[in-house]
Amino acid sequence: MFVRDRIFWSFCLLTAIIAVIVALCCPTVSNDCINRFAPMAEAFAEGNWQETFHPRFGFLFQLLTGTVVFVTGLSGDVACSLVGVIGWALCMVPLYLVVRHVFGERAAKVAVILYVVAPMPFAWALRGLRESYRLLGSLLMVWGVMRCHSKMRGGFAAAAAGAAVLAGIRADTMLVAGVLSLVYAIGNRFRLRSWLLFVWLALVLQPSCLLTWKWTGWWVPTSQYIPVIEMLGRMMR
Amino acid sequence: MTSWWSWYYAFFGIHYLPFVIPAAAVLVLRLVLRRVSRRELALLGLVLLMLLLEAVQLIASHASFEFGSEDFIVTWERYFGVLAPLLWSWAAFGVIQLLDWFERHRLLKVGSYAVIAVALFAVFAFDNISKRYDEIVKGAGRDAMVAGERISRFIARDYTGPRRFENFPYQINDYYTSRRPVVVGFWGCAAWACRGQSQGVMKGGYPMREDYLFARVDRRFVKEGLGRGLERSPEHDFVHEVRGTKFRWRLYRRKQQNKKVR
Q1: Which of B200, B198, B178, B191 shows the shortest CA–CA distance to B260?
Q2: What is the pTM of this model?
């Protein structure tokens, strides 16, 4: 794929390089980044786990940005911008694959160009937000599910990767990962790979469960589920 | 914000108008002509499923959201607009169909130029390019950061208290650090450059009193009341003013610093 369409993928690579340079030179402000993810990244690099992880915010973004701060010595806000933009660039590949699966190769190329040109996804990434990883996880899972339903190979790995990203990146994407895994399993007719995907999803949710348990005493992936579970409990009584 | 705009924005604006309108047109046309493939239906179904899951969770956690409020717009844009690139694939497909049509009528060259011109016009005419230009080149988006960095140099000299709260009561409802000084401002970046704790105005629930207030001096803040009357406040002293890339900002220091709220 990459060799056959050298010019197109060179364009994508060039865009990604420019985006990374912009992220390093012009990291842009956002409240969520400055108040949460940037201090979290710096706390990770300092080994201050209490201020690195919080049960509302997953663990994957802190892990990535914190590692960047630890390795490079960049400040937290620049690290968030950089990691966000790398996620934005990575999205080009699964977006191409999904659209190629549905509409064919030429439409896939146009779709990637539209994605690159549109300012919204890039702006979110540049502001050090987690949205690009949400899109990345969703695209991988959608591609995996569609491949599975079309009885084509390669779906499991993509779905597993997407589930891992969605389970770790945000509280509200954990449910999406679970439901899309179920859709995968329906396409797979609940064969071995479906159960492997469920086990994998359960495994990647465990760090979040441990975190929530330490804060609240509940073994659930995020603290936002607790009021819902309590409400359901009251309704059952 | 009128409600018609909210509805319009909720369905189209958050998905970037220049791309989602052609995408919607192509999709509706294919549905009406019954040319839509099973894979397209699967993709549409998955996108709608993800949007539905998002909406359910958002309504469950933000049940008090006022439809049409700024909170609503900002939150819905970020929560729902993320999947927009998948919807734009119908626009991409439409472009290919259009080029094929031009080719069949031996108008490929003219047609290609026309498609590129319309696409460029759609993108550039829409305000986002100018916004991004402002943000990255002119620095409007960096205004708060630049002002914050400038004021934080002053804060770094001015603040003599401890760098962290001891026995800080970490909150389950949101993420707060024990860093000090605590600076409250509309944009939460005023203390960032001196690695204090910044808190946005809209953020409630921070368990300690702020050390400083940092307010932008322009119509927005006057309208929202943050900057109004702080000079006369018995709890605050006006201490410094800086300029960002566009606006003036004022810093107010709490007289009785660091009094614990709860």
Answers
A1: B178
A2: 0.88
